């Protein structure tokens, strides 16, 4: 699963032209950035997220969308119901609600499943967090790989432990927080489900060796016309 990490509607639509992109992920920071503000009220945040859902309902190539819940269990469920309503009858879309790795948030997993949403524990950095998320019924976890690599010397061991727990539960391990293509390539050893910002997404097919090879092919054809 390849997703774009942005809340900007134009950036999402552009990213969908890239081979393999199935949808997008968002969070409060990205939604505020797309709105051009430092922070949003809860009402404004939900309104912005609902606009993304409305757009998704009308764009066939969006098959996966991930929106972060803000607030307690009742508020999380309320938001999820609103987002599902905005998706209208587009039942082929998979709506993921992102949850903080806390006891209060993860307690929402079952209720979200009951109304037709998938749940994703986000900002997971430890094996213990991943284990509790799986036991709580989360459909996946998101690890901020770039941040993990910057702050933990033994990041590989930590990620291996998280990946093993998620794989054993047959759930989704989404890797995020990619500053560059090299970090994506490091992450692909552990999961093929990633979300990348538009700038990194565009760089995924970059290779000087590929460019040299294609140039040689093109020159060969041109020389024989």
Automatic annotation (TrEMBL):
The keyword S-adenosyl-L-methionine does not apply. One of its GO terms (biological process) is carbohydrate metabolic process. It comes from the Bacteria. Keywords: Schiff base. The keyword Hydrolase does not apply. This is Transaldolase. It comes from Methylocystis hirsuta.
